Amino acid sequence: MLRKWYMQIRLKPIKWQISSFFLPSILLCGGIVEKGTVKELLDVIRKQFEGSVKGRQYNNLSQLLSLKYDRSGNVCSDILKISKLVLTLKELSLTIDDTLMVHLAVLPLLIYFEMFHVHYQNQEKTWEMN
């Protein structure tokens, strides 16, 4: 009985390795449609890549709009997160104006720092992200 239990424990990783070895080939089968020419194949791959870029744009934009200041961290680190998301969006060819980015950075802080908002609105020049 002990030997049977020992053999089951020894065989489980082997069975898992065998099953996981065949799994990716099943999942990848039909992922890219077979085409007659290389140009058609590259067009299909390009369209799939564009779809993934749009998905990443959506994810980064939703993260940018849902950021809130929760008083747990540093204000500077939150502003750096926002600027990093904006730079990522610029790399994905979705540009956001600097003034809009400043407003997105200031908006979550309004609850805790109302005087900051009043002083920013009273300034004559706008802030740049450089």
Structural features:
130 residues, mainly alpha, 5 helices, 70% helix
Overall geometry comes to: flat
- What is the averaged pLDDT score? 71
Structural class: mainly alpha
Integer count of domains: 1
Helix content: over 70%
Write down the secondary-structure element order: HHHHH
Helix count equals: 5
Measured between the Cα atoms of the first and last residue, the distance is 72 Å
Strand coverage percent: under 5%
Task: Set out the fold topology.
Elements (H helix, E strand, L loop, with lengths): L1 H27 L9 H29 L8 H17 L6 H9 L7 H9 L8
Helix pairs in contact: 2-3
Can you give a write-up of this model?
By secondary structure, the protein is an all-alpha fold. It has one domain. 70% of the residues lie in helices and 0% in strands. The chain has five helices and no strands.
Short description:
The protein has 130 residues and is mainly alpha-helical. The chain is built from 5 helices and no strands.
